[in-house]
Specification:
Layout: H1 2-30, H2 35-49, E1 54-58, H3 64-94, H4 100-114, E2 119-123
Antiparallel strand pairs: 1-2
Helix pairs in contact: 1-2, 3-4
């Protein structure tokens, strides 16, 4: 079921969202200051490619204070908008019965896109 869900996800917008995150990651990686943020958008883009079966978990060896500071900067400069976009589409898809599994994936991505520093994505392929 995960493979079918992921293929449907890719066909109906997941690939476009992932390409958007990868393009943003490339633009951020051009600057030296943006490299840590580029890694986070790359992480969200990978989750956009294969969300069914993937888990978002806390990193084991995360450095707490710097993650809080980086998450605050992330929220100010775009993370809030990505979060709101995923919540909007999650609510929109959650209205229909057939869209509930896809809404769950958007809510998973919303949590990651709000505060990605200190989180890790495990793809269970």
């Amino acid at each position: 079921m995960r493979i079918i869900g992921n293929l449907l996800w890719l066909v109906f917008g997941g690939l476009e969202a992932a390409v958007g995150y990868f393009t943003g990651s490339l633009a951020l990686a051009v600057t030296i200051i943006g490299i840590p943020f580029a890694l986070q958008t790359l992480k969200i883009g990978i989750l956009c490619l294969w969300p069914f079966g993937a888990e978002v978990c806390d990193k084991e060896n995360s450095s707490g204070c710097i993650n809080i500071l980086m998450n605050i900067i992330w929220i100010i400069f775009g993370g809030l908008w990505a979060f709101l976009m995923h919540v909007f589409f999650g609510i929109l898809l959650g209205i229909t019965i057939i869209g509930i599994p896809f809404a769950k994936q958007h809510f998973k991505m919303a949590g990651l896109s709000l505060m990605p520093f200190g989180k890790d994505v495990n793809l269970n392929i």
